[in-house]
Design brief:
The complex is a heterotrimer of chains A (313), B (293) and C (430). Chain A has helices spanning 2-23, 26-51, 60-77, 81-103, 108-128, 130-133, 156-179, 181-191, 193-198, 203-229, 240-252, 259-277, 281-295, 299-307; strands spanning 139-140, 147-148, 151-152, 231-232. With 313 residues, chain A is mainly alpha-helical. By secondary structure, chain B is mainly alpha-helical. In chain B, helix 1 (3-35) runs antiparallel to helix 8 (190-216) and helix 2 (42-59) packs across helix 9. The chains are: A mainly alpha (313), B mainly alpha (293), C alpha/beta (430).
Amino acid sequence: MTADRALWLHLGVLAALLAAHFIAPAYHHTNIARIMVLAIYAMGYNIAFGYTGLLSLGHALLFGAGLYGAGLLVYHAGAGAPAALVAGVLAGGAMACAVGLLALRTAGVAFMIVTLMFAQAGYLTILYFGSYTRGDEGIVIPRAARMLGGLDLSDDGTRYLVALLLFAVALLVNLALVRSPFGRIMVAMRENEERSRMLGFNPFTVKLAALTVSGLYAGLSGAAYGLLFGYVGASLASVQYSILPLLYVLLGGAGTVLGPFLGALLMFYLIDYASAVTDAHQFVTGAALVLLILFAPKGILGTLRARAIRWLP
Amino acid sequence: MDFGPFLLLALMEGLVTAAVLALTASGLSLVFGIMRVVNVAHGAFFMLGAVLAWFVSEWVPGPPALSFAVALVICPLIVGGIAALADTVVLKRLNYEPEATIVATIGLLYILEQAALSFFGPDARPVPAPLNFRIQLPWFGYSGYKLAVVVGAALVLLAVWLILKHTRAGLVMRATQIDRDTARAFGINVDRVYAGVFAMGAGLAAIAAVLIVPIQQAHYLMGGDPLLLSFIVVIIGGLGSLRGTLVAALLIGLSDGVISTFFAPTLAKIIATLVVALVLVFRPQGLFGKRMA
Amino acid sequence: MTNKLITPTPSRRTILKGMAAGGALLATGLAPRFTQAQSSAPIKLGFQLHRTGIGASYGRWYERTAGAALTALNEAGGINGRPVEIVFEDDGTDPKRGAEVVEKLTSQAGCDLIFGTLFSHVVMGSAPRAGELKVPYLVCSEGHHVASGALNRWTLQPGITDVKSQVQSMAPWVTSTLGKKITMVFPDYAFGHDHRDFFTAAVAAQGGEVIKHIAIPPTETSFTRYFPQIPSDTEVLYHVMVGPAVLTFVKELGEFYGTGARPEIFGFIDSLEAVNIASPGLEFLEGTHFWEGHPRYKQADASAAETAYRAAVGVDDTGASVSDPADIATYAHMFSAWETLFVIRDAMTTAGYQGPADRQKVVEAMEAMVSFAEGNDHPQGPKVFNGKTHQAFGLQSVSKVEGGRLTRVHQTAMEDGFYPDEVDYTTQSF
């Protein structure tokens, strides 16, 4: 019964997003499409951080892998959007796996710094190969190349529905994952690695798998961002974009399936509305981080789960 | 330019980089060694020191040397005060849990950068050097002040070492580092020690910034590079090992100039970053540190 | 707007779009204003502003310049008899936020068009969205992105010459006056690579040679160790740096050469934009040359329009703010915000602009333009506009540092900056 309740909740959110397609004003319509794409990234981050306890400061590398994996293929090889999307997802996963093979030999603070360093190296690599990537300036994916089947991804309506479709798949897979036996092992790693090891699970393999799934998500999000919004640039792989999903997840609730989306949504509008009052965006972001970690380290949904809705996945 | 003078210049430049880096990184290392806190806002404290030095140079009349001397005293105190406040208000309440403190210091970094942008502005602003002489060598000219920076940094580091080794405050810090609970049992106010250490770490970054700002200008985004380099130095030197930090600062500072002559500079940076990551993966205690529990 | 819904057989998508647009209007309370659009409601122009982030030094001056131009425009009767408003929105000098700002200005603030963007990566990130929203997007960036064909029909650069043209028009003077063996120092990212590629080619065309490229990583804060790589047979050192470390770069260059022998030095003023040339440590710049898009120091032969422009923006004869001599303008670039506004006025006038439905006419009117005369609307000087490539071409100045001031010693000819078209946007659909 509880399982159904959770499933219905998530389906309800998806239905609400579908309804938003018809009623949301133009400005918010595009914003929500963008937020859904970034929420996929945050969901991926949550799988590593929220469920498995891997606090990475280098996820921009994985997002960037998806972004450039898809973008460069379209831009230089003339690949179609479907192939590029797949390539981006795989690039994110492969990069996560490669990073994981090395970085997962460390833990805690060292893991954060190693991932940060790898991401920094990745960012500089994009700049270094400027003749292909146009470095910081980036490349615009031509409109003609942004066709998925017969769908024009630069059209507002299509873009929203494609973003929603990708988001729905990501959300439901996420839900299934955390409710599967493997999802429980991930949480076990977070809660007590030693005990899980004694139960016969290899922490390295479990973490590597979780990180790779996280990379697939980040890659999907990066590829979708490039194809749906038409821009691929180095700033999207900078350290700022490693912090962003952390912020979303902390705000929405680490270790909850809907938390990343809620966090992305709230953070976007917090900054958007704050800009009418103050130019101090960075202060808003910084204060949000400090206040969250001080007073609501479990985030909104995490706190709700602890207090009221215990069945929330 | 011939290879000899080339190398000489690279070494002189390396020495300046190393001196400032040693100072900045020792602050980071101190905080990590004693408190087990990775302070991401360290670069922001550095920036704050430089920005405050600019304000001091504007407000204090008289020769640049005077305002520089004032800045050298005031800036570390203010920055240290802010750090102590941050420690008491935020970090202490997080119980110094490593992941939570990282997130909190990221937030602190954003807040401090925004404060600098709002009150100091977006421009890079120069601060006059206290002494202005150039050394003209047969092959190239060199700023005399840069050499003074090396001497200044060495003196400060010596002072830090003396404090840690030969004062009661140092003894208390070391005791807290070794075993927080036992230290508390012996009547040491661990909270105050932590606030002091965090302030001292930030103060060291501020001193480094005051020294470097006549060479580099104050700018609200200037903290990023010192932060990354300090991380690199602290990791290579072994997290929490002050001696390792010094050696690593020298190594990184000196090799930085030389490496970038053999590879394209951006490529050199990529390689350096990857090397650091790999050191941490395969030798987490650093090249010089002892393996810690 | 509601009229649009009543088409013979509206597709589902049109209805949805109409509903969405109608919702936006209701949500933002703009519906009444649009119905009066043909009367005297103000024309709203969106300005994508670098108020924070690495472009903030420029952004502050772009805002002041655009504000001064707006006052002048409204005093002269606005556009089509209607007053004009500018809505400034900060993009944090970030391409992702840039696209969101285009969205916000267009869909939420109800702006008729958008202009003012400087940094190339923000232009690249924002232009696709402007094209999708079908809103004219006029950039003030000097990047080659517009003329290279990377962008779209809705993106134009009528207010400033692009970097390819600037660089190319400098080459004949540099090679004939300063020397033919050149070493280039530039930042290792797209803007620097444009300088590297275009100047190297232009120098070769003049019979000169770039003997060494020194690319400096963007995060660098100390530069002395790169200088020994400058070959000793270099006749001209060409430098262009951007970002907060520029002053350090120039200072360290001075320390490096000191009183010893040095090559001729030719720099892009970007290396010293918003920096006082009389700062301590910059004395060695005496006798060196700079490209300037618009001379920072008022020249002896300055036009009346130039004088009026300085007064309107609040810049004194040395290029500093009249209220704070330490606040140096980004003078070589910011004229583009001023001039673009007057190009907008002319295009909207020609197009008989009434409301968003006429946006396409504005682009077409602009594409039909061929030149802008020097005067109050174009204080930087005359320009040629290429409607096919959407790019303006103007005159560039070479200034020499003499007595701590920049004095113009050469002005390029218009033809020096021309190059074959790389795109014809007019053949693309809207």
